[in-house]
Write a structure and sequence with these properties.
homodimer, alpha/beta, Rossmann fold, 6-phosphogluconate dehydrogenase C-terminal fold, 13 helices, 53% helix
């Protein structure tokens, strides 16, 4: 299969590595607006060639867009128009509703399979690639009823080959769930970083003490605004709802700290502990294909 | 050296394992109010014997208390009274001000070295022990001026043998910094768990999507109320201040999401990204002894 990956950052670069490792591609061509990223992707062997968009689209069986969601909305309709009539097109964007809307009624709509592999790290750029980034994680496919079965199967086959679980939902459902599980986690991590950085002028002091759980909670705060500002913009309504619900729970927790009795605080923590079982049941289910 | 560890949970159990591994102890005796934890600690070889308090204190060179901070306040003065006149006593509690106050003016005060090794996991009980839990983390020592040099050196020697960095500060400074770096991280993680658990009745749906950063942000929410409610209670003032500062930053971030321009949101995320350099500089400094 001829695979073309547009966007050679962490996600696109990891996809190239994973696709190569599972032997799915005869050739991988890459597209990126950054000359540095193009050079790095070639040097790391992630792509066989880094080319201008038009050249990279010619003869591609599968075209994957892995660029920030604001750029996706602009580029996806054009790629769908310019790609070969037999090409399958998919994207890996973290929002789905506005992206699907951008190609609503597009004459080539049935060759496009909206998807979101739920996996990432806080790092960026092709040098941050992780060949196993997708394994045992979930890939969401949206609007499968609007996809030609041949193209749907090609994209689902890709994710299965990467050892991902497949889940189907509507773009709206995806954006709602993603707001709670992924986007809210990023907001609270960014805000934790801002709080601590403002408070602690003496960076050494605070980071001497980072062993106590801070590092994992603040990990996502290293994620770039280039990727995340557009996600928050496109998923604004759901993110604001999730954030408001979070604020309610935060105020309730704060209240429990001001009460003479610690019973309510104990109860709130005990309730939060239920997350352990939920996460463990996920790990147990493992890879479903 | 004869070492007695009071409290055979994650911290006490890990301490036993680490002390044994570095060859510091001739014998390790353990004390725990839970028969199950006592049996597990013996079976895992963490302690040579699990004994009642009085027996375990007799002849101990070093007594380490690793119990929840509310129990610490009760037990520490008694241990200091009952332990052999040559014993060194230290604790591993996550708060320091009220604990130090509990033994203020105690006739044996100079044999007690207040400490807090800043390290842990979200798990509990002796079976969760991690022999390398302390390595390359920071141990805070408070009120060293109130400790007999011999006893101070014994406790600092212990932490050095565990490959920890040593930092000295007042109990008040410790509690302030810990509120921002450790306790606040736990609050926001507990609250994230409560928010998501309330919203998502269909646990499967949400946890299929947990790849997107949720798992690391919510990890600390598995920590037990038995340990954390007393920490929040003892460090209430600093935790409330940290939480209010966090709430201010959270509202500012929320505001940035409602503005027509995304500039402010971009700026806030860019500011949060500075945490990367701060954490990297910590990693680079490595172990100082």
């Amino acid at each position: 299969m001829e695979v073309t990956v547009i966007g050679l950052g962490l996600i696109g670069g990891s996809l190239c590595a994973a696709v190569r490792e599972c032997g799915l591609a005869k050739r991988i061509r890459g597209v990126d607006s950054s000359p540095l990223h193009r050079a790095q992707a070639v040097e790391l062997g992630l792509v066989d060639a880094a080319l201008p968009l038009e050249e990279a689209l010619a003869g591609a069986d599968l075209v994957v867009l892995a660029i920030p969601v604001n750029a996706l909305i602009e580029l996806l309709p054009r790629v769908l128009t310019q790609a070969d009539p037999s090409s399958t097109v998919t994207d890996m964007g973290s929002t789905k509703e506005l992206i699907c809307r951008a190609v609503e009624g597009h004459p080539q709509r049935r060759r496009y399979v909206p998807s979101h592999p739920m996996s990432g790290t806080e790092n960026s750029g092709p040098t941050a690639f992780v060949p196993t980034l997708f394994a045992r994680k979930t890939a969401v496919i949206c609007e499968k009823e609007l996809c030609e079965p041949f193209h749907l199967e090609r994209v689902e086959g890709l994710y299965r080959a990467l050892k991902m679980r497949l889940v189907h939902m509507s773009p709206k459902e995806h954006d709602l769930h993603a707001a709670y599980v992924s986007h809210l986690s990023h907001v609270i991590s960014f805000v934790l970083a801002n709080t601590v950085l403002e408070k602690e002028q003496d960076v050494n002091t605070i980071f001497d003490l980072a062993g106590g759980g801070f590092e994992s909670t603040v990990r996502l705060a290293k994620s770039t605004p280039t990727m995340w500002t557009p996600i928050f913009e496109q998923n604004r309504t759901h993110v604001l709802n999730a954030l408001d619900s979070y604020l309610d729970h935060l105020r309730a927790f704060r209240d429990s700290l001001t009460q003479p009795s610690t019973d309510e605080n104990f109860r709130l923590i005990e309730n939060a502990n239920r997350i352990r079982r939920a996460l463990e049941s996920m790990a147990t289910r493992g890879t479903k294909t």
